[in-house]
Amino acid sequence: MFDIEEELKKLPAKPGVYLMHDKKDAIIYVGKAISLKNRVRQYFQSSRRVSPKIQQMISHIDHFEYIVTDSEVEALVLENNLIKEYMPKYNTMLKDDKTYPFIRATVYEDYPRLIYCREQKKDRSRYFGPYTSAATAKAAIEMAQKIYHIRTCSRVLPRDEGKVRPCLNYHIKQCGAPCQGFVSKETYRENFNKALKLLEGDYKEVISVLQEKMETAAQQMEFEDAANYRDLIENVKKVEIRQKITDFGGVDRDIIAVASTASEAVVQVFFVREGKLIGRDHFHMNGIDRDSGEELIQSFVKQFYAGTPFIPREVMVEYEIQEKELIEEWLTGRRGSRVSVIVPKKGQKERLMELAHRNAALVLAQDSEKIRREEERTAGAVAQICSWIGLTGASRIESYDISNINGFQSVGSMVVFEDGKPKKSDYRKFRIQTVQGPDDYASMEEVLTRRFRHGLEERAEIEKKDWNETLGSFTRFPDLIMMDGGKGQVHVAEKVLASLGLEIPVCGMVKDDRHRTRGLYYQNREQPVETGSEGFYLMTRIQDEVHRFAIEYHRSLRSKAQVKSILDDIPGIGQKRRKALMRYFQSLERIREASVEELSRVDAMNERAAENVYRFFHPEHTGSSER
Questions:
Q1: Quick check: is 472 in a domain?
Q2: How far apart are CA 218 and CA 239, in angstroms?
Q3: How are beta strands 480-483 and 517-522 bridged, if at all?
Q4: What's phi and psi for 428, nearest 5 deg?
Q5: Is the peptide bond before 344 cis (omega within 30 degrees of 0)?
Q6: pLDDT tens digit string along 559-575?
Q7: Which terminus of the chain has a lower count of CB atoms within 10 Å, N or C?
């Protein structure tokens, strides 16, 4: 069970993206934060004022998860990718499908340009971004144009060379006028390549050159030029160009990292599709005994890609693996084209791997405590219950309940818990067949007799065939039966088991006058229980679940019994005519007010059926029909 208060305490004070889930595990909100610890906590502070929409979103939060990033910029870009991927119900920022901007470099042109755009296309251009805002992207373009005199016009060069006069940028010394042939292709290309390096984030050389020009201009008392160079230097320092969360290559790749202890391991996978990190997942590995990172990664890759339908072009792993060539050959066969397994050593890919490893380590630290708590509230709670009544252990527990209203449509329910967790696939419902009236003891006797007799019959059938056949929900008998009640219910169960020759421990969950569980009735004695313990909470969950299951079944049967139309009582009106009447008149009141002639117009109705309907609603006119 996800404990929000406990998980809030573990949030790191780092930038990242958080994902809010509802009870059905659907992602209902994605957000970013400079500090995950501060931002996510704010949602659960009662004193904080939020909009009605966010308040509604908070009321649906069941659990949350998060991805740590290196900066808020990366968190923003990742947030965009995840919102577009999952389309959460309560996100509105990109509802209009507005995307983050890119810079398009038309490297295939003789005199290439830098163009602001909103999407990447599969053309011969090179793309930079996405950028965090339109202003950032446009500032980067303007900066590159001013420093390296990149043209801003859309003329086709050299075809349109000399056809029109140079633009204003030439006169203010921000363009070399390739449109007039004043700049050779070679010189322009050299400057353009320097601009691309600037966009890639290699701006140390740029700052050095601009610093030198600023000082020279100042020495020559060209203070206006010096001020311009100073502003350019500041722009270079401010613009966030490097976008590690987005890979410029547009390649599909999985990034796999592992964090482990002597007995536990978590593998983190980042999924990059078309160059964008769209999501991640983590996987626990069992049976760890001080395995090395290389062994863990190799085992994971073989098991994971044996079951996943999509194989990316690149599989980036944290450690070199021994069977690299064999695994590449296997994955290539599955994909139908070349697949590479690589270990990044430097640059952007290495930083992404470091990010994956840090997230794996966070999940491991978080889930180790979570697994320990889950163990305490499930298997640990079962062990505690067994200790109270003197049993050595119980893997499978079954519980039963009866539901009725004054004996009307009595039903029974059977719920199953294995190792302290509900196993809903083994739940069963019973409609009471032999008991009339509100007799819970007799109803329980029927339910238990049918359940275990059916199980014995199934076992006998399996013995005739092959005992290794998979055991069904009835065939598998419980290690412990927990009845919702005291001495009476326990004795009913013991009587049924004795009649069938079965020896299964039975205890009753006894309640006090206020309907609160106070102890366990076992072997004719009431055993005290430690209230507030995990065993006590498990007993409560079992009681609540068996009640819920019985009540929901009884409610569904009552609803079906009540779905009966008054039209069913009219002679000659079956399901087909009833539906036709309701479809035509839309309401029972309009049918009541209709004449025989109007009723006759309905499809599937004849004159005799119309008269029967009219007379039913107008008994005072029996013997004569109003036309």
A1: yes
A2: 25
A3: unpaired
A4: -140, 150
A5: no
A6: 555 445 667 778 888 87
A7: C
